[in-house]
Amino acid sequence: MENEKKDKVYKGVLVGLGAVLLVVAGMYFMEYRENKKYVAEITTEKLGLENELKLLSQDYDSLQTSNDTLNVQLKMEQEKITELLDRMRVFRNNSYAEINKYKRELGTLKGVLRDYIVQIDSLNTRNQLLTAENLKVKKQINWVKERNEKLQETSENMKEVISKASALDVVNLTCEPINKKGRTVKKISKTVKLKSSFTIQKNITAPTGVKEIFVRLTRPDEVVLGNPQNLLFDFENTKLVYSAKRDIDFEGDALEVAIFWDNDGSLISGEYKVDIFAEGNHIGSSKFLLK
Q: Residue 175 sits in which domain range?
């Protein structure tokens, strides 16, 4: 009888323990399932944050600016994104607190990105305005430059026209051999002088006053008949020897002029050339024969 009571007690204990085990097992299973769901949610959150960080990094990469200071700051923010990604990859603490911490850091980076976008848009707008202004100024400068060049060209043309208009000009230029009595001769042996005669035309635009007139006589062999002192005159940035010269007083009216060259024994037969110069200009030319 006593053994039966003991068996009943044992059975009751076993049943109670079984029930407890069932309850504990059920609680453990429910907790395990909840924990698994919790970890899965955190893992999903973590992967979502990593993807957002990668997209954010691409957004930073896409920003273009010519401002060196902004470029340095953008690079620093990209380094922060890389550092946050590295921390998340090794993150093992399945805690929403940690996830929320990363979310806050991500939110800060997004806010900074928005600020940079505003700054860069503003900077690009200013740069576009400056570029447009520079193009406008450049066009104005080019217009002024072209205008000045045209004015200078016009001025130079006017100077050239005035210079040509004020230059002396000769007509009826002849050169003939003469003897001691001033009569024209035909033979070189009787020639004492060569007389160059011409008329300076009327010119009211030419400055009046004393002017030097140079005669240059060239032999058939292109040797120039010189003056006794071998003096030179200026013509087109060089110096030339002349045969004879004379000072005249020009008042703007037509003027008859004669200039003589003394025969120094260097005459030869053939065709000669006579050129007249005044004030740096070649104002007349002709040819004549000596026999």
A: 170-290
